[in-house]
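Dear colleagues,

I hope this message finds you well. In preparation for our joint manuscript, I am sending the Putative acyl-CoA dehydrogenase (Microbacterium oleivorans) sequence together with its predicted structure, so that both groups work from identical material. I would be grateful if you could confirm receipt.
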Amino acid sequence: MTSAFDEFVTRVGPGAPERERERRLLTAELAELRAIGFGTWRVPAEFGGSPLALEEQFARLIRLSVADASLGHVWRGHLAFVESLRLQPADAARPWFERILAGDFVGNAQSERHATAHLETRIDRASGRPLLSGTKYYTTGSIYADWIHLAALDGDDRVAVTVSAHHAGVRSTDDWDGFGQLLTGSGTTVFDRVPVAGDGILPSVTTDAAARGAHLGSVLQLALIAVIAGIAQRALDDTIAFVTPRRRTFGFAGETLPREDPLVQLVVGELSVAAATVRRLVLSVAADLGAASDQGATAEEFREIQFEVFRLQEIVPRLVLEATTRLFEVGGASAVGTGPALDRHWRNVRTIASHNPVIQRTRALGRFALTGTLPEWSAPAAEETRTPRYARVGQA
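The corresponding structure tokens are as follows:
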């Protein structure tokens, strides 16, 4: 399937600006990727898969995001769902792996809009069968999905539940109004008395829950950073394509080739540095995360990797936002045209970086280093969890 994937990303890449301008959802492109098997490449061999190393899966996610940043982003929830299945007992994971190998796609729907952190999406068992009702926002990929994975309350228990996206009670709306990542389907999804199948609630795996949480949290956030790495490479490619045929540099009469201008060369060099650096950073952490998963790492070891992901969330957007601003120095007013759509790179990175505000992650790292307080992502007045000083970042 590698050659099919190579052909796919080469073919769909040129149409990305037009798809965004027309706000044409990626239904056809996603169907092709499903047929190629993109969503199956981490299914374990014992369930019928031919698994890639996690580092290679992320390398392909970056390549997909070079072709179309929204298309790469759409897969975030599905890839995390597959990783979560790898942590489940075999009998619970098997039916879901069978669906994934058959080509099913899983969307993600976690966020709610409330003044408190309490969930309002619930499972009602009064009728004798479990029925899910609630509203979720920023439901990336759900408009394209066969199944939607979400958090809900089952009585007083918070559970991870997965329901069919094809039931009449599920309505996904493409109402995402952000200025970037326009085709991710990150709109509103309403669930109205949607049946929950017997295997729709996976067992709560309590063995080393902290390790599992840090593992999956790292996968989810690293996927976003991988999309940014893809944008950085596409920004470089688009800038080279924009500069190379040009015959005149601003401020100089006659034919003065921009590609021979030292200042243009400097800007392109900066883009090249940013793209190569962030790709290497993402793949390095992905390799560590894959090895930790394969070797059954401890909670503390997974936490250290999660902190590495937090560090990438600080440095990668900063590098790429700066580079995607500087790229406009290569062409004067013509560089801001809607044809090349070079502005979309900055807009898309800024949108992704806003999913989990970088400043919160960075402050959490500093607080942990200084006080040993683990990140809780709760209200400032909430009780804080502390860890012994010897376990702090950067200390033996």
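For the figure legend, we might mention the following. The radius of gyration is 22 Å. The chain has two domains: 106-204, 209-391.

With kind regards,
E.M.
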